[in-house]
Specification:
- The complex is a heterodimer of chains A (206) and B (205).
- Chain A has 206 residues and is an all-alpha fold.
- Chain A has nine helices and no strands.
- Chain A is elongated, with a radius of gyration of 37 Å.
- Chain B is mainly alpha-helical.
- In chain B, α9 packs across α11.
- Chain B is globular, with a radius of gyration of 18 Å.
- The chains are: A mainly alpha (206), B mainly alpha (205).
């Protein structure tokens, strides 16, 4: 801090008079700087509009998020979701390129399923009743046929002898007790990927 | 533009009270800080009424800053956007000892910069006509000087401009400015007087 700046600070705190300041620094523009400071100090006292109307508007906008950081958390979730999806795609690409069997089969199945939906001229086959309505049959308990982990929590529903040790699809063996509630021709109908959404990648929330 | 130089008026000028406010009203200031800390804590928990109190407390300094930098037309939007961002960022706020308003000022600076870029420099020069306060008589009939001052302030180095804005627009003491910027009071003093000298030089050219 120069002597001039130190004396200005002393003047500001009342330790040095204006005339003393001028006398000590005759080569400086003391009046100009002090006048400028005075004008700036006016800014902090200027009138402003009533905040209440703007607060009412702002509050209504806050209601959308309700708690602070809601958008922040949503942004974080979005980044995590996108990051996970990107990692999965990268992993699948590498696995496919490296000719890893399960990944290649999975990708081929997925491509086949997508092709059957978007590449076919015919609409997906769905059982139709004679009256023209959809034959949905009796309600079935939800079973994820391709996810062994989904059935792990319900060991009583699975006959150990029916489980394919290699984890391959064994639809008939996994749900033996529900065969009578399924449509009579359920075994002959190809599983349609667009009915349960399993074969079609679900869109992300974004 | 030349400033009016009136030696008697300058000599009679007494530095504004907020210079020694920390000394004179230390007890009041501690009470205010304690109250603000409680409001911030409640707002972090989702209390919109508490956040509303903070809005009322700090609307004026942020509005003055926005009006001075961008003009009256954008001031409302800048203040609203600043508080919206503050609401979203509140969970990350930690009391470091600096005044809460300096945290808001940090957000407002970015909002002002964003708005300034959006408006464009050409538009901003036109809008300088709108930097007037609600009651023009508050300027003391120095409207032309005010416009020049607003433009000159925008040409200061960033650090010097922050000191000037925090002190004269937000209304902080030198101690509070130092806390907000993580500098010593002496460093803030130096920046302030150098900023004033630079402003004077810019306005004379």
């Amino acid at each position: 801090m120069s002597g001039f700046e130190r004396d200005l600070a002393r003047w500001e705190t009342g330790q040095l008079g204006f005339s003393d300041l001028e006398d000590r620094h005759p080569d400086r523009d003391v009046p100009g700087i002090i006048e400028l400071r005075r004008r700036l100090s006016i800014l902090a006292t200027e009138s402003t509009p009533d905040p209440e109307p703007d607060w009412a508007v702002l509050r209504s906008r806050l209601e959308e998020g309700s708690t602070p950081g809601a958008a922040l958390r949503w942004g974080l979730r979005r980044r995590v979701t996108l990051g996970f999806a990107a990692a999965m795609l990268t992993f699948a690409s590498i696995g496919y390129g490296a000719n890893m069997g399960p990944i290649r089969r999975g990708v081929d199945d997925l491509v086949g399923a997508v092709t059957s939906v978007f590449g076919s001229d015919q609409a997906p086959q769905t059982p139709v009743t004679p009256g023209g309505g959809l034959d949905v049959g009796e309600p079935e308990p939800p079973v994820d046929e391709e996810s062994p982990e989904a059935n792990f929590d319900q060991p009583e529903d699975v006959d150990p002898e029916d489980v394919d040790p290699e984890g391959q699809e064994s639809t008939d063996a996994e749900v033996p007790d529900d065969s009578e509630s399924a449509p009579p021709d359920s075994d002959s109908v190809e599983p349609q990927p667009d009915e349960d959404g399993e074969a079609t990648p679900a869109p992300t929330e974004d | 533009m030349e400033l009016h130089e009136s030696a008697p008026a300058v000599e009679a000028y007494i530095p504004p009270p907020f210079v020694d406010r920390k000394v004179e009203h230390e007890h009041d200031e501690a009470a205010v800080r304690s109250r603000v800390a409680r409001l911030v804590e409640r707002a972090q928990g989702g209390d919109q009424d508490a956040f509303g109190e903070l809005y009322r407390l700090y609307h004026a300094p942020l509005f003055r800053l926005a009006r001075f930098r961008l003009g009256r037309e954008h001031a409302d939007d800048v203040v609203a956007e600043t508080f919206l961002r503050a609401w979203e960022a509140l969970p990350r706020y930690r009391d470091t000892g600096a005044p809460f308003v300096s945290w808001l000022y940090g957000i407002a600076r970015h909002v002002v910069a964003d708005a300034g870029r959006a408006a464009g420099r050409a538009a901003r020069l036109v809008e300088l006509r709108a930097v007037l306060p609600e009651r023009p008589e508050d300027c003391g009939g120095e409207l032309d000087d005010r416009l020049v001052l607003a433009e000159a302030l925008g040409r200061l180095p960033e650090r010097q401009r922050q000191v000037i804005e925090l002190k004269f627009l937000v209304g902080l003491t030198n101690h509070e400015v130092a806390g907000a910027l993580g500098k010593s009071v002496g460093a803030v003093n130096v920046q302030q007087w150098r900023a004033l000298a630079n402003l004077r030089r810019i306005m004379e050219t």
